[in-house]
Amino acid sequence: MDSATSDRATLSSTADNGLKIVVVGGFGVGKTTMVRSVSEIRPLNTEETMTRAGEAVDDLAGVHAKTSTTVAFDFGRITLDERSVLYLFGAPGQERFWFLWDRLFAGTLGAVVLVDTRRLADSWYAIDRLEHHGTPFIVACNDFGGPLHSEQQIREALDLSEDVPLVECDARDRSSSKYVLITLVEHLAALSAARLQAAGTTARAAAPEAALATAGPTPESAP
């Protein structure tokens, strides 16, 4: 198991705002690759070599060339400013490790669902769990050189609503992975702004009613 520490500068002592994002998806969709490509530190990986013993429990359809797999999680870090740091967690993809997902989701701001368009059904569980937890997410289609699908075809296959961003990416490329994370952050900001606006509208609508409820009798109604 590779748990090497970073060979770069340590995190500033002034950083006190930790933000968490999780990368989830099916087996072999590139979660470890994405965390590795975008992390500013040497990521912590819990990868183990795949053996024949696992063939009976892991579905290798479409990923026959895969030789290692994540058995717990991947971890990376991006410093945003002097006080804020982004922590990235890559979830394991095999069904036998899905029980870890609920704990990984704890405290998460949002998630990236990474998908392989050749195996879209493998992403259904990730989307279902995120919706169950009420965790905001976006979907990123990793480029494996498979058949092209339109955005509408992908949305229909994943039963994805129009308000969930859908982007294409190459998890091996740092700039592409950064674009995915930026898209997620912009989505989270938009959701937060919408909630604040809705709360403000509700408060303004409730204000006249509250004023009437607390007001004394008018001169006309006074005895």
Automatic annotation (TrEMBL):
InterPro entries attached to this UniProt entry: Gliding_Motility_GTPase, Gpn, P-loop_NTPase
Keywords: GTP-binding, Hydrolase, Nucleotide-binding
Organism this protein belongs to: Streptomyces rubiginosohelvolus
Residues spanning the signal sequence: none
The UniProt record lists the keyword Membrane: no
CDD domains cross-referenced by the UniProt entry: Ras_like_GTPase (cd00882)
A Pfam match: ATP_bind_1
Family to which this protein belongs: Belongs to the GPN-loop GTPase family.
PANTHER family: ATP/GTP-BINDING PROTEIN-RELATED, GLIDING MOTILITY PROTEIN MGLA
Listed SUPFAM superfamilies: P-loop containing nucleoside triphosphate hydrolases
Descriptive protein name: ATP/GTP-binding protein
